[in-house]
Design brief:
Layout lengths: L3 E12 L2 E12 L3 E5 L6 H9 L6 E6 L2 E2 L5 H7 L1 E3 L12 H12 L7 H4 L3 H13 L15 H13 L5 E5 L7 H15 L3 E5 L3 H7 L2 E6 L2 E6 L1 H6 L1 H16 L1
Parallel strand pairs: 3-8, 3-9, 6-7, 7-8
Antiparallel strand pairs: 1-2, 1-4, 4-5, 9-10
């Protein structure tokens, strides 16, 4: 047992001539809300894919709770306690919010989706699904079809699906993407509530959310870590401001 829930050591991935993850070393203690930021093309989503097991690393190691999981498949990592959300939602539009979460619980338990009707009756699936919906503030929308939920509610639902299996580490890939001001505020409040109960690695462009919630921030540029530390130190770092935050501020005042 180490003090770190997640560690990467010299993690590297190339796509053709592009190095999307360049010798990344990352340490995430239990209970931390850790944000990864960087300009477009910095390798943030590649990092999430490497951690989740959807992308194979070319070099380096990934350790979870002290155990090497570098070569484990995504489903094995999920069993160990990793869960993730995606930039683009992937939901069953004709099913209710509750059905979607119950199916995720069922799949995590190793059952086939062809038994989805059981997910509509089995209390061992429905109860954790309802608890997950309550955790993201969607309990009142449990019986609403997904295609009748707003975009923001669909993003919340995707996170409910991720937390329904009781993960030890939650990987969030730009949950604020495409949200309006009111939906962004609701999402930020929801993430603040989740922060108190689990370890979270967040990839996000929304700097307001990052600096409001993160315990530590890692900055990626061209696949390489250029800084990692507490939000105040990252905000004041000249290299970070030049590489990313200055670009954001210029865009905001342009």
């Amino acid at each position: 047992m180490t003090g770190w829930l997640l560690q990467t050591e010299h993690l590297t991935k190339r796509f053709g001539g592009v190095t999307a993850a360049d010798d990344i070393n990352l340490e995430l203690p239990r209970g931390e809300f850790h944000a990864v930021i960087g300009p477009n093309g910095a390798g943030k989503s590649t990092l999430i894919g490497l951690l989740a097991g959807e992308i194979a690393a070319e070099a380096g190691a990934i350790r979870f709770d002290g155990n090497d999981m570098t070569r484990l498949r995504a489903d094995r990592r999920s069993r160990l306690g990793l869960a993730r959300s995606f930039q683009i939602t992937s939901l069953f539009a004709e099913f209710s919010a509750l059905d979607n979460v119950a199916l995720a619980v069922q799949a995590h338990a190793g059952h086939s989706f062809r038994f989805w009707k059981d997910a509509r009756r089995d209390r061992t699936l429905r109860e954790p699904a309802r608890a997950a919906l309550a955790g993201v503030g969607l309990e009142a929308r449990a019986d609403t079809r997904v295609d009748r939920l707003s975009h923001g509610e669909q993003r919340q639902l995707e996170i409910a699906i991720a937390i329904a299996t009781g993960p030890r580490l939650l990987l969030l890939d730009e949950p604020m993407a495409g949200l309006g001001p009111e939906e962004s505020a609701r999402m930020q409040d929801m993430l603040r509530r989740l922060k108190s109960g689990m370890t979270i690695l967040l990839v996000e462009h929304d700097m307001e959310t990052v600096f409001a919630l993160a315990d530590r921030v890692t900055v990626l540029v061209y696949g390489r870590v250029i800084a990692s530390g507490e939000p105040a130190a990252i905000r004041a770092d000249p290299a970070v401001r030049e590489a990313y935050l200055g670009e954001q501020e210029a865009r905001g005042h342009g």
